[in-house]
Design goal:
The protein has 188 residues and is an all-alpha fold. The protein contains 7 helices and no strands.
């Protein structure tokens, strides 16, 4: 987490310098947008549509995985599932804080969802209702959810748009989500 905070601090400093240079350079102000200077508007403190979609999807998925882990801690009796769920609570709490801090730097007025999507809510209801097959249902949901999140992170990084701070967050989160997916594959 300390490494991530340092990274975000360095990125913020660099971006602030770049924005300041663009605002004080008369040539930069009078030059029409071209393919070489199109990135400057992305340094503004606003989220474009793809950013908002990414933030919403990531926040809702994070809220779901955190809630599912809390259900697993309450319902599962297997030590492997308990350990995995504890890791999910810790990592997804941290991810939520990182997402919140990143969005606050870009657009403090943007409302970050703090609840799962309707689809995720139905999955939580299914998980809560599971009895003897709880661990099987939890594993299946974790595999699906982490695969979807990994796809979201990779797609966002590859698209040509998006705020640099959010792209950096996606890049930071990708190995963690990959690890979560691999760990879920090993659950009983």
């Amino acid at each position: 987490m300390l490494r991530t905070k340092k990274f975000l601090l360095v990125m913020t400093t660099l971006m602030g310098t770049a924005v300041g240079m663009a605002q004080t350079d008369p040539a930069a102000q009078s030059t029409p947008p071209t393919t070489t200077n199109l990135r400057v508007p992305l340094l503004d403190k606003e989220l474009i549509f793809s950013d908002k979609h990414f933030v919403t999807m990531l926040a809702q998925g994070n809220a779901y995985e955190l809630a599912a882990a809390q259900i697993a801690l309450a319902k599962s009796s297997r030590s492997e599932v308990q350990t995995y769920a504890q890791i999910m609570v810790s990592d997804h709490t941290q991810m939520g804080a990182m997402l919140q801090a990143t969005v606050q730097q870009i657009d403090p007025a943007f409302p970050i969802p703090n609840a799962p999507s309707p689809k995720h809510q139905r999955m939580l209801e299914e998980l809560s209702a599971a009895t003897t097959n709880f661990d099987v249902v939890y594993k299946a949901q974790m595999l699906m959810s982490h695969a979807e999140t990994l796809n979201l992170l990779q797609s966002f990084q590859m698209n040509g748009y998006g705020h640099p701070l959010l792209k950096a967050l996606a890049q930071t989160a990708e190995p963690v989500v990959t690890m979560h997916l691999q760990m879920a594959q090993l659950l009983p």
